[in-house]
Design brief:
The structure holds 2 protein chains of 2 kinds. Chain A has 3 domains: about 80 residues, Alpha-helical ferredoxin (Fumarate Reductase Iron-sulfur Protein, Chain B, domain 2); about 160 residues, Rossmann fold (3-Layer(aba) Sandwich), CATH 3.40.50; about 120 residues, Rossmann fold (3-Layer(aba) Sandwich). Helices cover about 45% and strands about 5% of the residues of chain A. Chain A has 18 helices and 8 strands. In chain A, strands 2-1-3-4 form a 4-stranded parallel sheet. In chain A, strands 6-5-7-8 form a 4-stranded parallel sheet, sandwiched between helices. In chain A, helix 9 crosses helix 18. Chain A starts with a helix and ends with a helix. By secondary structure, chain B is an alpha/beta fold. In chain B, the strands form 5 sheets. A 5-stranded parallel sheet of chain B has the order 3-2-1-7-18, with helices on one face. A 5-stranded parallel sheet of chain B has the order 9-16-10-11-12. Chain B has a 3-stranded antiparallel sheet with strand order 4-5-6. The termini of chain B are close together. Classes of the chains: A alpha/beta, B alpha/beta. Chains A and B meet through helix 2 of A and strand 14 and strand 15 of B.
C-alpha cells in the first residue's frame, strides 16, 4: 500500500512533456498565480517533494482531476496530489480536523465520532418525525430497518445527513419508502466518506473501505448503496476491488443510479413537469469525470422538469465546485473555498437556472454556501430531493 | 509493357508518382473519389510573402496540369477502387467503380500504388478549445482555404490590430486522442502562416504557443529566425481551454513563472494529420496498419513497398508528412516501381 497504488507506473508523472494544457484547466490558476499543475509535476521531478508537501496548494486542490482530463500523457493529478498529501501527513503537516476525522472513523465507524447507539436513536427519531409529518404514507408505514440481514440494499449515508442536514436523511428515507426499496442501514458502519483517502493515508483508507465491504457481506445484502456522495462512491466503484485484491461480492450502486434503474423499469412514481423553474445539473468530479455517471442524473431531472439547461462546460470538463477533496472540511482553508469558486459561480449565473441539482453531499454543501455567500438567485437541491418533491406534488 | 499502373488517390502523392512514371513512358490510371484532383493541397494557399517560403503548395497545380495533359495518364475522378485480384507476382486486375453508381470497369494492372492521403484531425473533439462554437477559432487548414479564396476578411472581419494566437500540436503528440506522434508539418506551416498573416495585415500581432518546436529541413531554421525577427512571440505551453467573454478569447498561460490570463481576438489551431478512414480495399488486400493507424510499408528501411509484391505506398497514407516530404516519398516510390519493373519483378 505505498506509491504503486497512488501513481501507477504507466501513468508516471515523469512522462510529462510540459505541454501546459493542464494550467488553463485548473480552477486555482488565478488564485495561486505562482503555482499550477505543471509546476507541481516539475517540482516533483526536480526533487522538491517536501517543499510541495509543505505548500497550501496541495490542500487547496480539490483532487477534481479536471486539469489532467485529456492529458496527452494520461497523468492523473489527483493521484499525484494525494501522493504529496501522504508525505505531508507523514511529516505531521496534514490538517488537524481531517486527521481527527480519520481517527474517529476508525474507532466509531463515522468521522463525527457519533456512537452507534446514538446513531440508531437518531435514525429512529428521524423516522418517527417523518412518519408524523407524511400524510400519504404507504400502508406498511415507515420504519428504519437497522442491521436487517438479506435486505436488497445496505444504505451508507454521509455524516452530513445525521449532523448538519438531518432532513437529507429523511429525504432518502422517503425515497426508499415511496419506491418500496428493501433497504437497511448498519449500526456499525454508517459513513460513506473516506477522509484517509484525502490524506493520502492509504493504509487507513483501505481499512475504511474494507469495513464497508465486510459490513455488506455480513448483512448479506445484494447492493452496497452509496448516498449522493462523490469520493466515497468513487472509491467503492473504482478502487475498492484493487485495494482489497479480491472481488467485492456485492454490487456497488449510488442512490441516483438506483433511482434511474427504477425510472427505466417504470417504478419511479414521479410526475413529469412537476418541478418548476429552470433546472441545471452540476457534475460532481467523482461521480462524473471519474466514474462517467453523466446521463442518469440528467434523465432523472428531465423526467420531472420541463425546463432543463446545461452549464457550460459540463460532464467530463465540469468546473469543480471548489469544496471537494477535503477543502470543505479543512478548517485551515477558512472561506477560501468560496473565493476559489468564482468560475463555478459565474457559469451557474450564466446558465440562468433557478434550481441547481447535483448528486454529491460535498458539492451540495459547497454550492449551498456559495449560493448564500453571493446571494445567488437559485435553489440548491440534490437529485433525490427533487425526485421526492416530484413524488409529493 | 502495356499494362497500366493503378494509382489510388489523386492528391499530390498520387499525382507525383503517376507524373514520374508517365514521364518515363509508363501508362497510369489515377483513381480519385473526389470530382477534382489535387487533394488537400489544392485547397491550400501559397505562403509567399515578399519571397517564397517554400511551402510547395504550387506543386499541386503543376502536377494536376501534367496529369490532365499527359496521354500516358488516364484520370478517373469520381471513381474508386472496388477490388483487386492478386497473383503471385503482384496485382492482376483492379476493379474500378464509379461513385454513386453500379458502373464498374476492370483494368489489368501492372502495379498498385496506395496514395490515399490523410484525414485532418477534427478539433471539435477538444471541446474546451471551442472550434465550431467560438467564432474566433479557426484551423490552420481553414486559414489556408480562406487565403486561397482571397477571403481573409472572414478572419479579420474588418478589425485592425488583431491579436492572433497559434496553438500547436492540436491532436498530435496526444496519446489521449489517439495520436501519439508528431504530425511533422504543423510547426513549419504555422510559422509560414504567421509570416503570411503579418505580411497581408501588418497590424496583426502573433503569439505561437508550442510544446517544443520540432523543425527539420535545411530552410526550417531560417523560417524560425524570420518569424522571430518579425516579432512573432513564441510562448512555451499550449493552453488547454479557451474561455470567451464578450468578443474576447481568453486563455490562462504560465508566462515568466506566473499564471496569467491573456486575451486574444483570434486563435488558429494547428491540427494534426490522422490516417484516412480505413478503406475496404486495404482490408481486402490485407495490408496492415502500423501502430499509428497508417498503412504499413514492408519495413522501416523500405518504405515505398508494402508486404504485398506489386503494391506500393506513397505520401501521407503511410505516415504524416508535409508537402515537401510527400513529394520526396512519391518520387522514391516511383523509382522503386521502375526498378522493380526493370528487374522483371513485376509482370
Amino acid at each position: 500500500m505505498s506509491g504503486e497504488i497512488l501513481i501507477s507506473s504507466e501513468k508516471s508523472y515523469s512522462d510529462c512533456f510540459t505541454c501546459g494544457s493542464c494550467i488553463s484547466r485548473c480552477f486555482l490558476a488565478e488564485s495561486y498565480p505562482e503555482m499550477n499543475p505543471r509546476k507541481l509535476v516539475h517540482r516533483l521531478l526536480t526533487g522538491r517533494e517536501r517543499e510541495l508537501a509543505d505548500s497550501e496548494f496541495i490542500w487547496a486542490c480539490t483532487l477534481c482531476g479536471r486539469c489532467t482530463t485529456g492529458c496527452p500523457k494520461g497523468l492523473e493529478m489527483d493521484a499525484i496530489v494525494r501522493h504529496l498529501r501522504g508525505i505531508a501527513w507523514q511529516m505531521g503537516k496534514a490538517p488537524e480536523r481531517i486527521v481527527e476525522g480519520v481517527k474517529k472513523a476508525l474507532e466509531f465507524g463515522n468521522n463525527t465520532g457519533l456512537e452507534s447507539a446514538a446513531f440508531v436513536d437518531m435514525a429512529e427519531w428521524l423516522a418517527e418525525e417523518l412518519a408524523d409529518e407524511m400524510e400519504d404514507l404507504p400502508e406498511e408505514g415507515l420504519s428504519v430497518p437497522i442491521d436487517k440481514e438479506g435486505a436488497d440494499v445496505l444504505y451508507i449515508p454521509n455524516p452530513r445527513e445525521y449532523t448538519s442536514n438531518p432532513n437529507m436523511f429523511q429525504t432518502y428515507m422517503k425515497f426508499f419508502t415511496y419506491t418500496n426499496t428493501d433497504w437497511t442501514i448498519s449500526s456499525r458502519v454508517f459513513d460513506i466518506t473516506n477522509w484517509a483517502y484525502y490524506l493520502g493515508d492509504n493504509q487507513d483508507a483501505l481499512v475504511l473501505v474494507r469495513n464497508l465491504v465486510e459490513e455488506a457481506r455480513r448483512l448479506k445484502v445484494r447492493t452496497l448503496l452509496s448516498t449522493e456522495c462523490g469520493h466515497g462512491f468513487k472509491i467503492l466503484r473504482k478502487e475498492a476491488e484493487q485495494w482489497l485484491g479480491e472481488p467485492l461480492g456485492v454490487e456497488v450502486l449510488s442512490v441516483v443510479e438506483l433511482a434511474h434503474r427504477y425510472l427505466e423499469e417504470g417504478k419511479l412514481p414521479v410526475k413529469p413537469g412537476s418541478i418548476e423553474g429552470t433546472v441545471t445539473y452540476h457534475d460532481p468530479c467523482n461521480v462524473g469525470r471519474k466514474l462517467g455517471v453523466f446521463e442518469q442524473p440528467r434523465e432523472l431531472i428531465k423526467a420531472i422538469a420541463d425546463d432543463f439547461v446545461e452549464l457550460w462546460p459540463n460532464r467530463e470538463y465540469s468546473i469543480c465546485c471548489g469544496g471537494g477533496g477535503s477543502v470543505g472540511q479543512n478548517t485551515r482553508m477558512g472561506q477560501k473555498k468560496l473565493e476559489h469558486a468564482l468560475a463555478k459561480h459565474d457559469q451557474i449565473i450564466r446558465s440562468g437556472a433557478t434550481v441547481i441539482a447535483t448528486s454529491c453531499q460535498n458539492c451540495l454543501s459547497q454550492l449551498g454556501d456559495l449560493q448564500s455567500r453571493y446571494d445567488m438567485p437559485l435553489e440548491v437541491k440534490s437529485v433525490i430531493e427533487l425526485l421526492v418533491e416530484s413524488i409529493e406534488t | 509493357m502495356d499494362k497500366p499502373i493503378v494509382v489510388v488517390g489523386g492528391g499530390i502523392a498520387g499525382l507525383s508518382v503517376a507524373g514520374m512514371l508517365a514521364g518515363n513512358g509508363m501508362r497510369c490510371i489515377i483513381v480519385e473519389r473526389e470530382a477534382s484532383l489535387g487533394g488537400h493541397v489544392r485547397d491550400w494557399a501559397c505562403m509567399a510573402t515578399d519571397k517564397c517560403l517554400r511551402c510547395f503548395c504550387c506543386s499541386a497545380e503543376d502536377l494536376v496540369g501534367y496529369a490532365r495533359s499527359s496521354d500516358k495518364i488516364d484520370v478517373r475522378t469520381g471513381w474508386e477502387l472496388s477490388s483487386v485480384s492478386l497473383s503471385s507476382g503482384g496485382p492482376k486486375q483492379a476493379v474500378l467503380k464509379r461513385i454513386g453508381s453500379a458502373e464498374e470497369k476492370t483494368e489489368e494492372a501492372a502495379a498498385l500504388v496506395i496514395a490515399t492521403g490523410f484525414e485532418p484531425y477534427n478539433p471539435g473533439e477538444k471541446i474546451l478549445l471551442g472550434h465550431g462554437r467560438l467564432d474566433g477559432v479557426f484551423t490552420l487548414a481553414e486559414m489556408d482555404s480562406l487565403l486561397r479564396r482571397d477571403m481573409l476578411s472572414v478572419f479579420t472581419r474588418g478589425r485592425r490590430g488583431l491579436r492572433a494566437a497559434f496553438f500547436q500540436c492540436v491532436g498530435s503528440r496526444d496519446a489521449n486522442s489517439g495520436a501519439n506522434y508528431c504530425s511533422q508539418y504543423c510547426c513549419k506551416a504555422a510559422l509560414r502562416m504567421a509570416l503570411k498573416l503579418m505580411h497581408e495585415s501588418p497590424d496583426i500581432s502573433v503569439t505561437l504557443f508550442y510544446i517544443d518546436i520540432q523543425l527539420a529541413g535545411k530552410y526550417a531554421g531560417a523560417l524560425l529566425k524570420a518569424a522571430e525577427d518579425k516579432g512573432v512571440r513564441l510562448q512555451q505551453g499550449v493552453p488547454g481551454e479557451i474561455t470567451n467573454s464578450e468578443d474576447l478569447l481568453e486563455v490562462i498561460v504560465e508566462s515568466q513563472g506566473l499564471n496569467r490570463k491573456e486575451p486574444f481576438d483570434r486563435v488558429i489551431l494547428s491540427i494534426g494529420e490522422r490516417p484516412s478512414p480505413k478503406q475496404s480495399v486495404l482490408d481486402q488486400l490485407g495490408l496492415p496498419a502500423n501502430e499509428f493507424g497508417f498503412v504499413s510499408s514492408r519495413d522501416p528501411l523500405d518504405n515505398s513497398r508494402t508486404a504485398i509484391p506489386g503494391v506500393y505506398v506513397a505520401g501521407t497514407c503511410s505516415g504524416p508528412k508535409d508537402i515537401e516530404t510527400t513529394l520526396e516519398h512519391a518520387g522514391q516510390t516511383a523509382e522503386v516501381i521502375m526498378a522493380d519493373l526493370r528487374k522483371g519483378a513485376l509482370r
